Amino acid sequence: MDASETLAVDAFLSLIVPLWQLVIGLLVLVTVAVSVHRLFLRGPSRMGGALLLVGGAVVGLAVVSYLVQSFVTPTTP
Fold first, then answer.
1. How far is CA 10 from CA 1, 2, 6, 18, 37, in A?
2. What pLDDT is attached to residue 53?
3. How many helices (H) and strands (E) does the chain have?
4. What phi and psi values does residue 74 have, to the nearest 5 degrees?
5. How many CB atoms lie within 10 A of CB 50?
6. 50 within 8 A of 39, measured Cβ to Cβ
7. Cβ count near 41 (within 10 Å)
8. How far apart are the first and last CA of the chain?
9. Phi/psi at 35 (nearest 5 deg)?
10. For residue range 22-71, what is the model confidence (pLDDT) as tens digits?
């Protein structure tokens, strides 16, 4: 594969990547909507536990992303 073919492949993939991100985002949105609907059908007794679980997941994700960012990002003197 010569340089022009490599550039063409890279350009094509860079055009496709945002499309796949959009598709993945839409699938995640549909999944969240269906799960929230099912949670509402189960009633308020399950809502407290679900909110605690989701809150814990959000806090855990924030802590993990902060730790990864602090270890990966080089510090400049």
1. 12, 12, 6, 13, 41
2. 84
3. 2, 0
4. -75, 145
5. 13
6. yes
7. 8
8. 42
9. -70, -35
10. 788 888 888 888 887 887 787 777 777 777 888 888 888 888 888 888 77
